[in-house]
């Protein structure tokens, strides 16, 4: 008896985080695994993942285009609506025993809702994390719809429980991205140059010298000031004297503002010392980050994977403000001087010791084993005692 | 300075519950109120509300058809997806200060998501209620996306808080449906016959004699057995010797099974003593219920409005199992004998004293006043302490 | 080398017309045939075809729910839009050599457009027919998008050519529905009673005596008067003294008005002598029609299949006004007296000789053979000479 | 009594072509004009038209985002489907007397279908034109759905008639784009430099010297070779010794291939002498074209507006192969040498005399006057004689 599992990949960052789990599910004989690729993961501008996924040995069962030209909140809402419409058709056809989803992005809720309507149990990875950004709304809403929770940290486990989820449905598997990080550590590629294989545009970076990795995403709730914020970051970088690999932002609302600032920087100010990429294979990306002198921006990678690598990270602004951090992270406001000062301080400090706060590198196997052992069914409705309600009813 | 509010009505039951609040918002000079009618509320089979709403003095600003032919979960998912796509367009055009939504049905989450993506603060009525049905998943997920909570009961207020919502964003306004109930009480229409005005089909009920009101909705998670369950209810009714007004079910998954059983009962077994209706104006419906000897089925009206009327209610099965109840409710399993016995026992008991568990009848004004006084903004991201997390981070 | 063909079935009437072709394609080893069932063909109210298709030996490859609660033009437009969105996904996944579509209904254009965008050659059955109804707009628009035309009649072939389509892309295959008619003729079931197998509601018809078959569809362009028109038909029937099988209308805009009139007739006027059905298997339906004393209404069956059977037909109003007719058809205005008079006259005349105007009963094989022999490719752009344009360009 | 007209603008090229008509409708007191902006016209990458339209004195009544991330046929199909869904809602709300659409692009058919379903008469501009590209499929299909035809040329008028449209519903108004061209001619801006106002990227062009304008769009049916074709064009340009303004392609399937080739040319080969733009205001764009030494590519502007200006044009490949041409056009295959030779020959020839093949510059007023005088109603169904069918029916 095999267990049938379906999962939807909608962006490169989400893919990077769950890749090892998807591979483990693909390879395990006890599991029939269906992979749907959708949204930004099919779009060149944000890094079409089709080839990358195939090269990683996974078959793509369905491609479902849903991404409206983004950069505006209304387009994100519609992308989610399109996803809901079409994932429903796909899930009904595939008729899986469970649907595995991850994280906090808006596409997440489309697959969770579609599965919920179809009475397919939802397994949610990375619930209970608190970053302090608007994405958390979606994450916690997904927790309330999910039937099983595979969490990364001790804090997350406790928070999911406090949100009224039954304890016997919460598993601490660790984050599958840490498993990928562990693979990267074991390979010991201490000097890796992505420019040969991936191209990119801009100056050539000498990877035998110190470099930093920059990844700055828009903040959807304040999307009109994303242009200004990106310029603070550019001004900060101009004050520093170090090479950089700079990655284009994800497709959240505001992405056009961030991209515009970067594009002007490249075209009108030369962007000395910077190499720009759309995306790398997650494995290569993490190798680049592991070897970096510092990670700069507001990506969760600075906090999550870098804690495992010990790579110093400068975390800008509010996007990750409440996320659990290891010792490697320095938080700064989105101000050019403070950003530059933060990077200088981290470069001086150098590498940090490894932290296992997000897992110890065997999440994929844990996830697969747990899935196989589950006899998946919808969770019972929440009862008052699950959120600690005990008083007598007043009348 | 007026406050601009938008709300979406998608079904007759939802409309009945919020009608007084919508009217108060329409009439209040401090508020610009936009009403969108959508989904099942535009469909004849489930009671097209267009005329009813106009007659109640409210203008319909937009009609948005979203309802796929229902009776199957996949159609519900798609209806929600269509709603998300089109509400996003509508909300962007109307550009309101806040979006008011209510309850727990699947359409709710489409408007909540659309507003969330567009950074429009969401006000959620009736959060924190626990019924024990699958609808609660959607209700609690909506709570995690909403920015303000206007709850009905003390228990609900505490539960919303336990789910990690800031205390200063939770208002106990009571349920606007109780205000409608209070209006009905004040009118003192002790004998009301809907057959003249609305027609209906089946036998003629003599409203000067005892009658019961039956309303039985499908259970989406087990939608294949809804036919059998409805037959239990029919068998139970056949054992009783009392007239009945029977209302067709809502459009949840499984509605075709319930309808089929009722239709066969009508067409092949005569359904002696029963008058069938699709829907009445909420006001007339509640008058009918207030005067009834007993309310039978699994509608929340038996628990909510009937507690205020003191009308005895027999509540079948799990759909409302964890909902807060006043003394007027008798819970029974979905078994013909037990249902019949329950009705007999309630008929013998007769009317109960009024309970104010769901509010004291002034919710609409409280809601309007609170909205006017709000300076609406998105809630801050949830922090760990809001769900009572206090331990130090482990590493 | 097999040819891969996909087709979408969206209603019972469309299915009835192409059934033999779909079966021939399913059974032919030279063809990989994919069948998508969608729209009204999945909805109970209009006759869910899933079981009927499976029993006919065909596998359903995809079910795609698209039907919005109909009865309003806006819902039809949205149903078509939903179809376009999802058929595009399905066609991309199946990657067929061609897409086979039929007829004139609005769903047709969704599949034709989806295929056109994806550069999949479109084969259109039943192009060039002129009925005189608004459906023709869609039919002729589809002709302009189709790459191959499999037509039924000589007139159709000439009209498709006049519309600027290349002669070598127009094949006169005959209509596959006539093949089904031929099968029915060969079976010689001269007395067939659908009431045992299908139930239905209303009076019992004695099939050893004369009966008529009534099928009246709404006219979308004037959908507000469909209620009145249906009442003319009812009044006409009341003047006659013959039993009838009456079929509910299709899901075109206006269906609610037609249904309402029929429902009231049934519930308030008893409808003496009438048995009502939602739908039968096409085979059984045609047997019933073949044995009927007269076919009454505005269905194309009265003109198309009845010409082959020689069953007298009374064709009401404009819906089929320009369709090619055999000698068996009497056209009448939608007026109660004229309808009744027409039926009386046809009953007196009795059966007509067989006409082969719509084909000689081997269309399915011709269609399949033609498909196998095609090396399908997109048609070249239309040139001025194809529509007979010869003058010199003026400047 | 005013006439209510709605129109949907979905791309910059379509806007350019109808701008004067939209302005005339806006300004005319006899018309209530509603403008919907949608699709590519709302997307930065293809030139967001919101500001441009507002600056031209027109109010945007609705913005409807529909554009899926393009470059793939499946995304175009879905964009059309989304449009159909949402235009239906918008048209029902606005309830216009007619819907005005133009041209041949895929978005056209979404608005035509939505209006057809809602029984709103469709007025189609630019029907009957034959370009020889796949776009014609959509144009001729739209002709078969449209109720009125406002055509540009004598040939178009005859072709629309041959396609079976009633002669009294075909008006030769001329193309509104020629009116814009006439305005540009009258202004006598013989030296216009867009670089000051619009920026653009690449080298600076000296507009006091000869320059050419390049605009090359993808061919959807062969979208995989668009990259190679664009490289032929680049190689051709490299052989020439003249400055160029190069405009990015439209959003048709294949746009990513064209863009990729251009981007590589810019980033890796320097693109000496070329200034790249996304888009200009139509007025400014035509001024630039009028002053150009040659127009190069496959845009209809080279044939349509340039015939009126007398600007020499080199038309590459099949995209416009059957379009009516004035004497200013030289057709060449998509081969680097032939393109270069064509441009050299046109540069040597210099300016051509004005041709009025596409109208004489007063189309906008003619269109508006015709609309006001119409008493718009749906066209009658096509009858056999309209396509010249006269034979007796064979049986």
How would you sum up this structure, described in words?
- Four copies of one chain form a homotetramer.
- With 395 residues, the first copy, chain A, is an alpha/beta fold.
- Chain A folds into two domains: 196 residues, Rossmann fold, CATH 3.40.50; 162 residues, Rossmann fold.
- Chain A is built from 14 helices and 14 strands.
- A seven-stranded parallel β-sheet of chain A has the order 3-2-1-4-5-6-7, with helices on both faces. Chain A has a seven-stranded mixed β-sheet with strand order 8-11-10-9-12-13-14, with helices on one face.
- In chain A, helix 1 packs across helix 14, helix 3 packs parallel to helix 4 and helix 9 crosses helix 13.
- The interface between A and B is large, with 71 and 70 residues.
Could you write a compact summary of the structure shown?
With 395 residues, the first copy, chain A, is α/β, with parallel strands linked by helices.
């Amino acid at each position: 008896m095999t267990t049938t599992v379906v999962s939807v990949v909608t962006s490169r960052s989400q893919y990077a985080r769950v890749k090892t789990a998807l591979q483990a599910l693909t390879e395990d004989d006890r599991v029939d695994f269906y992979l749907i690729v959708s949204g930004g993961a099919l779009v060149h501008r944000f890094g079409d993942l089709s080839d990358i996924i195939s090269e990683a040995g996974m078959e793509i069962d369905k491609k479902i285009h849903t991404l409206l030209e983004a950069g505006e909140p209304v387009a994100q809402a519609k992308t989610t609506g399109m996803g809901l419409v079409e994932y429903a058709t796909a899930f009904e056809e595939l008729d899986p025993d469970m649907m595995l989803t991850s994280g906090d992005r808006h596409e997440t809720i489309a697959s969770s809702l579609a599965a919920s309507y179809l009475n397919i149990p939802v397994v949610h990875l990375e619930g209970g994390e608190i970053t302090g950004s608007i994405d958390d709304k979606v994450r916690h809403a997904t927790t309330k719809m999910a039937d099983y929770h595979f969490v990364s940290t001790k804090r997350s486990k406790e928070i999911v429980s406090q949100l009224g989820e039954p304890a016997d449905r919460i598993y601490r598997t660790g984050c599958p991205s840490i498993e990928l990080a562990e693979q990267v550590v074991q390979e010991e590629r201490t000097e890796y140059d992505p420019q040969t294989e991936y191209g990119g545009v801009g100056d050539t970076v000498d990877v035998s010298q110190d470099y930093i990795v920059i990844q700055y995403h828009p903040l959807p709730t304040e999307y009109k000031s994303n242009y200004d914020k990106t310029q603070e970051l550019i001004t900060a970088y101009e004050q520093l004297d170090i090479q950089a690999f700079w990655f284009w932002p994800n497709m959240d609302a505001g992405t056009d503002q961030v991209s515009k600032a970067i594009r002007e920087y490249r075209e009108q100010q030369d962007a000395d010392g910077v190499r720009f990429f759309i995306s790398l294979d997650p494995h290569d990306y993490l190798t680049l980050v592991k070897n970096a002198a510092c990670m700069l921006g507001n990506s969760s990678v600075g906090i999550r994977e870098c804690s495992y690598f010990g790579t110093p990270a400068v975390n800008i602004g509010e996007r990750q403000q409440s996320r659990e951090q290891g010792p490697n992270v320095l938080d700064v406001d989105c101000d050019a001087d403070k950003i530059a000062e933060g990077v200088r301080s981290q470069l001086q400090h150098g590498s940090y010791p490894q932290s296992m706060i997000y897992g110890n590198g065997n999440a994929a196997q844990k996830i697969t084993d747990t899935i196989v052992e589950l006899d998946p069914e919808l969770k019972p409705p929440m009862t008052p005692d699950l959120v600690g309600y005990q008083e007598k009813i007043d009348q």
